[in-house]
Description:
- The chain is mainly α.
- The protein has 9 helices and no strands.
- Helix 2 (33-45) packs antiparallel against helix 3.
Amino acid sequence: DGRYEMLSGHRRMRACELAGLETIRCEVVEMDRDSACIFMVDSNLQRTEILPSEKAFSYKMRLDAMKRKAGRPSKENSDPVGPNKIGMRSNDELAEQVSESVTQIKRYIRLTELIPDIMSMVDDKKIALRPAVEISYLSKELQNDLVEAMEMMVCTPSHAQTLRMKKMYEEGELSIDDI
């Protein structure tokens, strides 16, 4: 209906605007919502510097879109069981496409369960990925308590400590005093 959505090239477009260019070359492609989401995520993952939080939400968005599209062979696919890998799990396919292990992708996606304060610590490299993943299993309330404890103690928990906290939480025994 005459409307378009830009999926990639936002920085180039802004640079052209700043340079005073009134028109820019573009490629108009018709896609469904899930294909557009996958394309956008792929474009963002091409950047040389990407924060763990950006990777986490990108992988989650892409995997969700892939799951919605699962089982639908592309129009160009003449062999529905070959190149489309029907029967392959979406997370296995994503791992192959982005050259990461399924386990690592699951770790990144798990980060999306962190409260913003802890996610910022991961992005700022104050908390490593593995401890952050264990923290993500705690309730939001306990994550907030943990942030307060970290600020008060001026330290962050080790991986072993986060594993113990997660185990205690799963057993219903984790309290602010334990943190």
